[in-house]
Amino acid sequence: MNPAGSCKPRGLDLADIQGNIVRAYGRFGFPYSRHIFFNIGAPGAGRRFIERTRRIVTTAERWTDADPGSGGASPRRPLVAVNIGLSYRGLVALELPTRTLRSLPEEFIDGMAKRSSILGDVGCSAPENWDPIWTAQAAQRAREVHLWVSLSAQADPKGAAVGALAQMTGAMLAIAQSCGGVALLEGHRGNDPRFQDAAARMRELAGGIKVPIPKEHFDFTDGIADPVFLGQYEPEREAFEVIGSGKFAPGSPQWEPLATGEFILGHASEAQELPPMALPWSLMRNGSFMAYRKLHQNVATFHGYVRQQAQLFQKVTGETSQEAADATIRAKMVGRWPNGFPLAIAPTYADCMALQSKWAAIASIQLKTSSDRTPEEKRQLLDFARFLTDFRYVQDIDGAKCPLSAHIRRANPRDAVDPLLGAAQGAPAPGSTLSNRRRILRRGLPYGSSDAPHDDDQSEHGVIFMALCASLFGQFEFVQQQWMQYGASFNVGNDTDTIVGSRSPNSKFVIPSGPASHGRTFICANLPQFVETRGGEYFFLPSLTALRQIAEGSVDPT
């Protein structure tokens, strides 16, 4: 039990955990990010770099100006949050003990490129087609990606990145140079080959002020329903955040937080076990694994295919409105309407429009800062957030509302893979048990122009996607292979995920008969490749304790 008045959440040492594990920074006022990668040429230089960087790493401690219930001694929200990760090759370059290195997970040792066939990174997404920074490391030791440094920045009053982002970038480069053996790796496609920048898309208001909007380049609302785990929030806030983002037992109407050990090492998992960890225990505890991926979006291909299918949809189903047909095709592919409304709640275009009228005030409220919102507006935002996430699939077994192969249904099936889903009436309602051990924390932002995207496939537009979890194999790779690339779990044969799946000849997507399709089944045939992988790697995000051990060279597995 916590002592009375303590703001420490149930055993989590937030000052020891890196902040990006607990927080999705984009939701906390950081619409800009910069990813910088380094190579360690000598172990001593690498340890010096980590020693100097760990002192400015942003932890998961509560912020006095952002987190209700934070103590008076808590830090304020930084202008730029700094976080760091190490690849397996980076740990080798730092000369960690052999006993430690060989007991790390096999998939982490292999690295992302070697797992390409498992992940569906084939064809145009194959490693040989990735950005130069990733292809060069396969041939040269001096080009291996060892260190990842992430800078997440707030916006200034006009909506641009704060000047502290450039200052912190310069500081990181100066640290690397002063260590005498840590080299910046270049080779990113985009405006600056030295860095991989990402930023929320922006909407311009009166006076030239720009505010971030939660849209990616296919124009869908993104960042909804990330997992909530025990200790991530204070109890009062957790009770709200967990709705639609946690877990539920068969027959239970109650949402509960997932086990901490599904995301942070050294804590109990959903199986009430400690995830396997390399020795020493103190090196891995309070850390997490991360899959970093650069995902290019073929914007013209996506919009063109949707327009084409919408015209066919009108002819087949008798839909009279081109706008409704276009929106329906988009929504059925993703599982949500472009405004974020879930199909499980609003299965038809008419339902969506009716609910949009009900929530019409939300858009203007979202554009206000938290300090400018009235108590009633804050309550409306909470109600809206619950509306977007509080649903299950027990009432939609055949996918008439949300197709079985829709992206969000495959990424987080909720109760859709429970054997009780089709049970006879009177049986306990299905639970999320079979999905709970496959959840991943999603982090990242779009990259490319923050304004409206160019309607082509060649421009640099996409998403920097980061999946955080305790087991890359059991969580990220399982979801990517079994749920994104295969359809067996959803009874859709070889159909891959509608958005991020890799394509084979004659790929298709089935929209079952239902109210949205006017009672007729519609097949989207010859699905093109909408998303291509342009690079990535697996990283370990150590705790502050582990960073100190690595910097001191005191990692001892005995």
Main beta-sheet strand count, sense and barrel state: 5 strands, antiparallel
Work out the number of β strands.
Answer: 13
Number of helices: 19
Oligomer: single chain
The average pLDDT score comes to 92
Model regions low in confidence, pLDDT < 50 over at least 5 residues: 1-9
Q: What form results from the Cα inertia axes?
A: globular
Helix content percent band: 25-40%
User: How many angstroms separate the termini?
Assistant: 33 Å
- Please state the CA-atom Rg, rounded to the nearest Å: 23 Å
- Helix and strand composition category: alpha+beta
Task: Give the amount of beta strand, in percent.
Answer: 5-15%
Explain briefly what this protein structure is.
The protein has 558 residues and is an alpha+beta fold.
Describe this structure in words.
Helix 2 (43-54) runs antiparallel to helix 19 and helix 11 packs across helix 12 (322-334). A hairpin with a 5-residue loop joins strand 6 and strand 7 (210-213). Strands 1, 2, 3, 4 and 5 form a five-stranded antiparallel β-sheet that branches. A four-stranded antiparallel β-sheet has the order 9-10-8-13. The chain has a two-stranded antiparallel ribbon with strand order 6-7. The chain is an alpha+beta fold and 558 residues long. The chain has helices spanning 19-22, 43-54, 88-93, 98-102, 106-110, 116-119, 132-135, 164-179, 235-241, 281-284, 299-317, 322-334, 349-358, 362-366, 375-389, 407-411, 433-436, 472-485, 544-552, and strands spanning 32-40, 80-86, 147-153, 182-184, 196-199, 201-204, 210-213, 288-297, 441-447, 462-469, 508-511, 522-525, 531-541. The chain is globular and about 70 Å long. The model is unreliable at 1-9 (pLDDT under 50). It contains 19 helices and 13 strands. It starts with 18 loop residues before the first helix and ends in a 6-residue tail after the last helix. The protein has a domain at 299-438 and 493-529. Helices cover 29% and strands 15% of the residues.
